[in-house]
Structure formats: structure tokens, C-alpha cells
Design brief:
The structure holds 2 protein chains of 2 kinds.
Chain A: H1 18-34, E1 43-49, E2 57-64, E3 105-114, E4 119-127, H2 135-139, H3 142-145, E5 158-162, E6 169-173, H4 178-185, H5 197-208, H6 218-227
Helix pairs in contact in A: 1-5, 1-6, 4-5
Chain B: H1 3-14, E1 17-24, E2 38-43, H2 52-59, E3 74-77, E4 80-81, H3 88-95, E5 101-102, H4 110-115, E6 130-135, H5 152-170, H6 174-177, H7 181-193, H8 196-207, E7 216-217, E8 219-224, E9 245-248, E10 252-253, H9 264-271, E11 285-289, E12 292-293, H10 300-307, E13 314-320
Helix pairs in contact in B: 1-10, 7-8
Classes of the chains: A alpha+beta, B alpha+beta.
Chain lengths: ~230, ~325
């Protein structure tokens, strides 16, 4: 579907082509299935969702079983760049109808390929969010946030946009910094300049996932390294 | 096409406006359906969100709750909530149902097409105002992104789109990201106040980055649900309504694989071959831009330079034929 000009070798570490992305996420799903669906991890479901107009997306559902601690502690340190996400005050959860009693909140993480940036992009929606909750608090409890250290600190900043496939509002992490972040964590001296699609995806997940509560369950990571892609 | 011709076309595009007739929703009106309508001739390239303060001032005497801030309002056309970050002209091309201006294909000159797109008319007809409804309650948060007092959401969304266009053009967004604060502010002010000269001052820097080669043309294609093999079968959604569109993007290089200049037709044929099976003739659907069905033979980059929206993208509405 796309015809792209040849890329310099260095860029192959930072970007991923559509077919490779598709390969990577299908392998991800296979590993999940082999693990007999999570075996008790925080993830409820992992599935590949086909798309008529581009590569498939990977949809990960995570059940939130604990409510976040109330946000009466000090506000987060301000992001130090111009395109940071919303303040805490404004980042109220806006999503599908708020939950009625007894319903648990599910976070849906969609890993979607960006044809413009040629990297995966993370879109987040919630079903049954508790009313008046702050998205950052829901995804990563405040008590854990201080422990997060990752390259390019602003990478966890969430903004609202239209989900590229559903067209409905979703939170997302802007991809303009992804390539830089990937460059920062790419090991030098890799054979052939890159690992396979699976390794790319794992590296990408390690970069953008933790700040939004998306961490690959250990057993799944082990299952994937067994698939050796 | 020479630079002056492109500049001339850009001026015509920026002069394009739409007659809007905006009425207050009965449920938000003290006198039910008795409020006056608000008429305005609004630029195609501008965003409806900028109209909200004026609308609030106009409708204040009729509002059930005049204390509701102007930015909590929302607009709809025939029950479809209108997305804030879609320029007015794009919304019109997508939803109004107005017949696109059809150029005689044998003429084949982009300038003629685009010069006819300055009004919301078909040849010879009297312009019919596009009737929209203004609401102050029941904000559809599952479908629309909320605004704020300082246009911050609008600015952030615009800036993201502008950076993406830059990345698409050059393979890096560093030109956009290294704009001085002064230039960034100027650009946004130009968009808010619809100032073409101020806009070009900054935009020309974006279009001519030193040391970078142009690679791809920023294009987004909007498919109506009747055309799209919809994802509703694959992604179940709550509260999905009519007016759903699918936005398709692909990286479109400046030249085709056979080193020919990319045209609108070659781009659409490679991106959406089932909807555009021919590179030269619109058989099943036509691409509509600023109210006109653009000839498939148009040079894509020149089309972008003359007729892109303020974020740098060509936002093409696909209208099915027959």
C-alpha cells in the first residue's frame, strides 16, 4: 500500500515497515495464546484486529481491579517542553459512559501503525471509567509513578485525539518523539543493525508502556523469547 | 506550475467561504424554537471553534443558562456532532450533501477547478446556507473532544497535525519543532485570525527547510461509511452514530515508482485501489477538495502547495458516484 524511498541503515532501527509491524503483533498474539491467555496476568486479552486500509492493530485489554489513590498529593512536576500533555486538573477521564456500581474499569490499549511516522502509536480508551478520575492516576497509581525512569521523560504525556480507526476520541502518546526514544535505547553493534519485528515491538513497549501502565507480563515476555523472532 | 500561479491559486482558496446559518437547539433555548438564526460567511480553511465566543454573545439573550462558558458548546449538522479539528470546508465537503463542482475533464486545468471552489455554489445556483445547530448541553463526550477556555486543545491538535505534515514532507519534524516561539505564536495567531500573509511568513519557512529534501506529500483521505469496509465488524463500539468516517493515510512519495510525478490519481489508485481502480478517471468515486471534484491528473505536490489546509495537509473527501 505504501511505496517508500529506501531508508538509510540507521533508520531501520528507529522505524518499522507495515509488513514487519504486522508480523510482530501476530507473533505477540501467538505467544499470548500459547501462554493459555495470560495465566493470571493483569492483561485480560490480547488480539490482532484486522483493518481493510492498513496493517492490523494489536488490542490489549487490562482490567483495573484497584481504584487509584485520591489525588490530594502534590501535582506532578510540569513537563519541560512545549507539547506536553494536559495538566492534572484538566486530564479528567473522558470516555464512554461512566461505570455503574459493580462494573470494573477496563483499559484498552491499541497499538496502531502510523503510516506517517512509521512507528507504532499507542491509543488508550477506557470502558466504564470511575467518574471524575484522572487518566494518569487510573493508569499508573501515584505511588508507583516516582519509580518510573525512562528515556525522554515526556514520552508518557497523553493528549486526546481521534482514534485513527474508530474515529472516536482516545488518549494517545504523540509519536514525534518515539524515533528519538528508540534511538536512545537501541543497542549499538547489533547484528545487521536491528533485531526482528518482535524485538522492535518489545523495545517500543519498554519505552512507551510503563508510564501508562502497560507492562508486558513476565511470563508473556518469556514466551516471546522462546518464539525467537 | 510557476510560483506566482500557485500563490494566485492559494489566494483564491483562502478567499473561499461558506454561508452558515446557525440556530440554537430548542432544548437550550428559553423560548424553545424562537431564537433568531445567526448568519455568517465563514472561511473554508478556518475552524468552527473560533466562532463560539461570537455565537455565545449573539445567543446570550435566549440561553436557558447564560453562565455556561462558550467553549462548552458544540455544533451539529443533522444530529451529527461536528469535530472541532476538521476545518469548516472539510466538514462541508463531507456532510453537507452539496454537489461538488464538476469540472469538464477535458479542460483539465487545476486553476479553473480551484477558482470555482470559492463559493458553496454549483455553477449559476444561489448559495444555500449550511444549517447547523448550536448546543449547550448533553456534550457528546464519546464522540467529540472537549474544548477549553484558551483554545489550548485546538492549538495542540493543530500543532500535532502541522508537525506530522512536516514529518511526512521531509522524514523529520525538526523544522516544525525548531520554530522559534515567536514563529510558533505567529503561525497560531494567523490560523486564529485567518491572516494569510502572516500565515505564509511562517509557513514558507516550513516549506523550504535548508538542507532537507522533499519526500512525501501530506494527504489524508476521508471515506464515508458506505465506502469503507467498516471496522464495526472487527471493533465493537459503544454509541456509534451515523456520520462515521474512516480517515485513510499512506505515505505518498513525490514520484511514482516509475519516476513520474505523482498525481492525485496515481496516489489514490495506489492507496485505495478498490475505490479508485483507474489512475485517470473517477469511475466509482471522486476526490473532493474545497467543494470541487479535482481532476485525477492534477500534480499532487502542486495541488498541496496551492490548496492545502493550514495544517499542511490535503484533506480529501471521497464522494461515491452513482
Amino acid at each position: 500500500m505504501t511505496t517508500t524511498t529506501p531508508t538509510a541503515a540507521i533508520q531501520t532501527q528507529l522505524h518499522i515497515e507495515p509488513a514487519e509491524f504486522a508480523e510482530g503483533i501476530r507473533a505477540f498474539q501467538r505467544a499470548w495464546i500459547e501462554l493459555e491467555e495470560g495465566g493470571g496476568s493483569a492483561w485480560q486479552d490480547v488480539r490482532v484486529v484486522e483493518d481493510s486500509y492498513g496493517p492490523p492493530l494489536l488490542r490489549i485489554s487490562r482490567l483495573l481491579d484497584t481504584l487509584p489513590s485520591p489525588t490530594d498529593d502534590a501535582p506532578e512536576a510540569p513537563e519541560d517542553e512545549d507539547d506536553a500533555g494536559e495538566n492534572d486538573d484538566e486530564a479528567l477521564v473522558r470516555s464512554l459512559p461512566p461505570k455503574s456500581s459493580g462494573q470494573k474499569t477496563t483499559v484498552i490499549y491499541d497499538i496502531v501503525y502510523s503510516p506517517s511516522y512509521r512507528v507504532p502509536v499507542l491509543y488508550i480508551t477506557l470502558s466504564h471509567p470511575p467518574p471524575n478520575s484522572n487518566i494518569h492516576d487510573l493508569l499508573v497509581p501515584a505511588s508507583h509513578r516516582a519509580q518510573l525512569q525512562h528515556a525522554g521523560g515526556s514520552l508518557g504525556a497523553l493528549s486526546l485525539t481521534d482514534h485513527p480507526i474508530t474515529g472516536l476520541p482516545a488518549y494517545f502518546i504523540h509519536p514525534c518523539r518515539t524515533a528519538e526514544g528508540m534511538a536512545a535505547i537501541t543497542k549499538s553493534g547489533e547484528v545487521g543493525g536491528r533485531g526482528g519485528p518482535m524485538e522492535y515491538l518489545m523495545r517500543w513497549l519498554g519505552l512507551v508502556g510503563p508510564s501508562v501502565g502497560l507492562s508486558v507480563p513476565v511470563r508473556l515476555a518469556q514466551a516471546m523469547s522462546k518464539l525467537q523472532l | 506550475m510557476a510560483s506566482e500561479r500557485i500563490a494566485d491559486l492559494q489566494l483564491k482558496i483562502w478567499s473561499g467561504s461558506l454561508p452558515l446559518e446557525i440556530r440554537l437547539a430548542a432544548s437550550d433555548c428559553r423560548t424553545y424554537e424562537d431564537s433568531d438564526p445567526y448568519f455568517v460567511q465563514y472561511p473554508r480553511l478556518s475552524y468552527l471553534a473560533f466562532l463560539l465566543p461570537r455565537l455565545h454573545a449573539f445567543f446570550a439573550p435566549w440561553l436557558i443558562d447564560p453562565a455556561v462558558p462558550s467553549y462548552e458548546a458544540w455544533l451539529s449538522f443533522e444530529d451529527v456532532p461536528l469535530k472541532w479539528h476538521y476545518p469548516t470546508g472539510l466538514l462541508y465537503d463531507l456532510y453537507s450533501g452539496a454537489e461538488p463542482f464538476n469540472l469538464d475533464a477535458r479542460q483539465g486545468r487545476e486553476e479553473v477547478v480551484l477558482s470555482h471552489s470559492t463559493g458553496a455554489t454549483t455553477a449559476g445556483a444561489v448559495p444555500v446556507p449550511w444549517r447547523l445547530t448550536l448546543h449547550y448541553t448533553e456534550f457528546p463526550s464519546g464522540q467529540l473532544i472537549p474544548l477549553d477556555a484558551d483554545d489550548k486543545t485546538m492549538r495542540d491538535t493543530f500543532t500535532n497535525a502541522m508537525k506530522e505534515a512536516d514529518f511526512v514532507r521531509n522524514g523529520t519534524a525538526r523544522t516544525a519543532m525548531s520554530l522559534s516561539k515567536e514563529d510558533s505564536d505567529k503561525l497560531w495567531r494567523a490560523v486564529q485570525s485567518y491572516d494569510r500573509a502572516l500565515f505564509n511568513e511562517v509557513n514558507n519557512k516550513l516549506l523550504h527547510p535548508p538542507g532537507l529534501e522533499l519526500r512525501h506529500v501530506p494527504v489524508k483521505v476521508y471515506l464515508p461509511t458506505s465506502a469503507s469496509q467498516t471496522t464495526s465488524e472487527t471493533i465493537p463500539e459503544e454509541g456509534k452514530t451515523t456520520g462515521h468516517l474512516r480517515v485513510v493515510q499512506a505515505l505518498v512519495p513525490l514520484q511514482t515508482s516509475s519516476r513520474q510525478p505523482q498525481t492525485l490519481g496515481t496516489a489514490l489508485n495506489s492507496t485505495l485501489p478498490t475505490i479508485f481502480p483507474s489512475r485517470r478517471n473517477p469511475l466509482l468515486a471522486q476526490p473532493v477538495l474545497h467543494g470541487a471534484a479535482v481532476p485525477m491528473t492534477a500534480n499532487l505536490w502542486e495541488l498541496n502547495r496551492a490548496a492545502a489546509y493550514t495544517d499542511g495537509f490535503l484533506h480529501l473527501a471521497v464522494v461515491m458516484l452513482g
